[in-house]
Amino acid sequence: MSKPIDSKTVSIFNHLKKKPNLETKEIISLNSAEVYEVLNKNSNDTVSYWFKLQQAWCNNAYNTFKDYDSYLILIYLVNEIFKKLSDRFQYLTYQEFYERTELLIDKINLIEISKDLNIPKETIRRKVNFLQDQNIIFRKGKSIYFNRNLTDAQRPANSKQIMSVFLEKSGQILAKEDWFGRAFKREEIENFIDKYFTICWQHWFRLQIPFLVRHRTFYGDLETWNVWGAIGISQFTDYNKQVQNRVIEDPRSYADLYLHLLRHNPKNGINASSISEISNIPRATVIRKLKNLLRQKLIMKNKKLEYMLLPSPKNIKSFEQNYMHNQKYKANFVTTIFDLMKNSSFKVE
Q1: Residue 310: inside a domain, yes or no?
Q2: Cα–Cα distance, 164 to 312 (Å, whole number)
């Protein structure tokens, strides 16, 4: 197993009493490749919790401004603050962070943000001006700050709770391996995230921002991705019921789950009104996005005007590569949080 290589948080892991490797006698930490392999072999056991977390977080993101791009830029800027705090070895609690009356961003580099998020520079400029109009960011001299309105715009109380459930279920699976140690209860995980919020949420954004950028690039916009996701979750729910009822066998891996889900023929699909209700995206917008997905040959529609995944979507290879890439990022996040809880100076006894 290997030590963490995150240069921003590596110092947290120094001078610790980690578990020795019985064969090599070396001090070790969790390894994301091993975590991935275990979760991969138990792909169906946590995916419903992951979908619930992802859907809740994305819906909250959309509800903030009714515009995913504005929210994506917002969390990008918030993450820059997390990074600066981490660089200074400052780790704020959930309450401490959101009680700050002002949070210094320092400066905004439109070209850098455009490159990192793969969004045109002029769009970035418009969205930053929008955040300023919403009184979420403001200028003081040559510096830029967040003000207290950030609390209402970005405070992730609900997502934090759902994330703790997802991590609890992941930990229960990993705890079957000798090298992992004990599993943590949901309350322990949520308390840990509360106490070390800025470092934990920095790693969540390290997962989430590239995750959203990849989907935005593939689908053209995040609203279209969320509409597709609602169809996928609906289809997974039907598929998972058949797995639980032993009508069909468990998937053996993430790739197996992906193929089974695409090829699954549910009795019913999901209609535009239901997608709108789930995603909080207006029905007229949902219908436009559905038409776009049909043109791209990513979904299909039955005679009841219900939508399902297409068994062989257009660009299926890129589609699969994107999906598998996301599973690796997810395993990295799970590894980091549990490494912090087990092997860092923050660890839970």
Answers
A1: yes
A2: 34
